[in-house]
Automatic annotation (TrEMBL):
InterPro entries: Cit_transptr-like_dom (IPR004680), SLC13A/DASS (IPR001898). Coiled coil: none annotated. This is SLC13/DASS family transporter. It comes from Segatella copri. It is a multi-pass membrane protein. One of its GO terms (cellular component) is plasma membrane. GO terms for molecular function: phosphate transmembrane transporter activity. Keywords: Membrane, Transmembrane, Transmembrane helix, Transport. The chain crosses the membrane at residues 18-35, 47-63, 70-92, 112-133, 154-182, 243-263, 284-303, 309-328, 340-360, 372-389, 419-442, 463-487. Signal peptide: none annotated. It comes from the Bacteria. PANTHER family: LOW-AFFINITY PHOSPHATE TRANSPORTER PHO91 (PTHR10283:SF92), SOLUTE CARRIER FAMILY 13 MEMBER (PTHR10283). Residues 59-413 form the Citrate transporter-like domain.
Length: 488
């Protein structure tokens, strides 16, 4: 007790975050208890007002980072269960006529085991197995070899390989792995040359852009993918392969454009580079099992729709195979990024709360979304997402924006057809979130690259902002074109 008091008195206790948390709590309580008529929404119920208050709480906690982002998701689910579900305190329930539609508590809890969560777990398990077996290093060595020794080709190779890995493996893990492969490359470059900056920046840029290529590449993709395919919502039936068919080539195009920009900003002074990627893991039966499972999983993800099996179900394949064969053990499960899983679950719970209580429907009817200009909605949503994601977690940004935009899109109806429909807006937010890479704090790959000390923040801002904005323009152009054709 004395040590705790001492920490508070000496300033070890973070007063700023404590004040931000108290401010969030105060604002949430005020919104929770406002007269229901003050919201200006016809037919608003008590439970729906609580959801608005919980949403305000989530926005403030994620923006201020008063508590860790994953902890905010835990708090969201806790408050929904105890104060807005049919398993809440009796004093919080009342009759439906009096309080409005309560959430099904089982549905809220099911957010932890949503099929999209299993999809993410499958991706995490694949990444852990690839690293443990040394397959990741072997794949990198084989894939980088065709790019030769010319400096600019080596740069392109690292960007493309990082981007491809990030489609199936956590972009944070990919960035960390690829940066270790650069260590021997740097020995062959002049200490003060700009080529080192180009190569270092290539890793986070490749990782951030590459994640767009598949539904499991980044959490924002998962939010968009879930909403678009929700059987009780849009139910568009977009398969893993459908997503990849459009998004993977788009990512390759973005990476090539980014390569040109990096070469112009940070030109190499040395024409050739010797590449040596070493793997310390020995090949054995586990490597073969991981390789075979990796290939089979990707094939089933891409062609599963034609075979009658969805991507979420396929994600159980690597989990089951690696558990059964002993490639992954109980200790390895600690390496799963559970913070991301919790964050995604919290975002899903927010979306469920808006739809399950009827708040989304009431909002659609009370606000004249149909009068909005589709192009303005697309541009504003993209810019807001890009701006926020540069300063807070892109997962948190997507968790906040996608439920709101789902309501907006529902209210606009057929007017969205001219820009490709709801898909353009929701997938566009995921694209904008991944393009936000201007600062060391913008994404974990950026932070990892900056921690090497090889790049300055000004270099990251210059390259990240330029490539990010151009990538957004490419992304939305591609989405409008293909979504209008009905492919996505």
């Amino acid at each position: 007790m004395q040590e705790t008091v001492k920490k508070v008195l000496t300033g070890d206790f973070n007063r700023k975050k404590a004040l931000l948390f108290l401010l969030t709590a105060l604002v949430t309580v005020i919104v929770w208890n406002l007269p229901i008529d003050s919201f200006g929404i016809d037919g608003l119920t008590v439970v729906q007002q609580r959801i608005i208050a919980i949403f305000v709480m989530a926005v403030m906690l994620w923006l201020t980072e008063a508590i860790p982002a994953w902890a905010t998701s835990v708090v969201i689910i806790f408050v929904l269960l105890f104060f807005a579900s049919d398993s809440a305190f009796k004093i919080m329930q009342g009759s439906e006529a009096e309080m409005g539609q309560l959430l099904d508590y089982q549905g809220v809890m099911a957010c932890f085991a949503d099929p999209t969560i299993i999809l993410f777990l499958g991706g995490f398990v694949l990444a852990i197995a690839a690293t443990k077996s040394g397959l990741d290093a072997k794949m990198a060595k084989v894939l980088i070899a065709p790019f030769g020794k010319r400096s600019e080709h080596v740069l392109l190779g690292f960007m493309l390989i990082t981007g491809i890995f990030s489609m199936f493996i956590s972009n944070t893990a990919t960035a960390a792995m690829m940066l270790t492969f650069l260590t021997p490359v740097f020995k062959a470059l002049p200490p003060g040359g700009k080529g080192r900056v180009a190569l270092t920046m290539a890793i986070p840029i490749g990782a951030n852009l590459g994640g767009m290529g598949t539904p499991i590449g980044t959490p924002p993709n998962a939010f968009a993918y879930k909403v678009l395919n929700d059987p009780q919502g849009l139910n568009m039936g977009i398969g893993f392969g459908d997503w990849m068919m459009i998004m993977a080539p788009m990512v390759i195009l973005m990476l090539i454009v980014a390569w040109f920009i990096l070469l112009k900003m940070f030109p190499f002074s040395q024409k050739t580079i010797e590449i040596k990627i070493e793997s310390h893991a020995k090949s054995n039966w586990r490597t073969a099992v991981v390789a075979a499972t990796f290939i089979l999983t990707i094939i089933l993800w891409v062609f599963g729709k034609q075979l009658g099996v969805n991507a979420n179900t396929v994600a159980m394949l690597p989990i089951a195979v690696f558990a059964f064969t002993g490639v992954i053990n109980a200790n390895d499960l600690k390496d799963i990024d559970w913070a991301v899983i919790w964050m995604v679950a919290g975002g899903f719970a927010l979306g469920l709360a808006m739809n399950g209580t009827g708040l989304a429907e009431v909002a659609v009817k009370s606000i004249p979304f149909g009068e909005f200009n589709p192009l303005v909605i697309m541009v504003i949503s993209g810019l807001v997402c890009f701006a926020l994601s540069n300063f807070i977690s892109n997962t948190a940004t997507a968790a906040l924006l996608i439920p709101i935009l789902s309501v907006v899109c529902a209210g606009m109806g057929d007017k969205l057809a001219e820009i490709g429909g709801t898909s353009t807006i929701l997938i566009g937010v995921a694209v904008a979130a991944s393009c936000a890479m201007s600062l060391p704090i913008s994404t974990p790959p950026n932070a990892i690259a900056y921690s090497t000390g090889l790049i300055q923040q000004t270099d990251m801002v210059k390259a990240g902002a330029t490539i990010g904005v151009i990538s957004i323009l490419i992304g939305y152009s591609v989405l409008v074109f293909f979504c209008r054709m009905g492919i996505l």
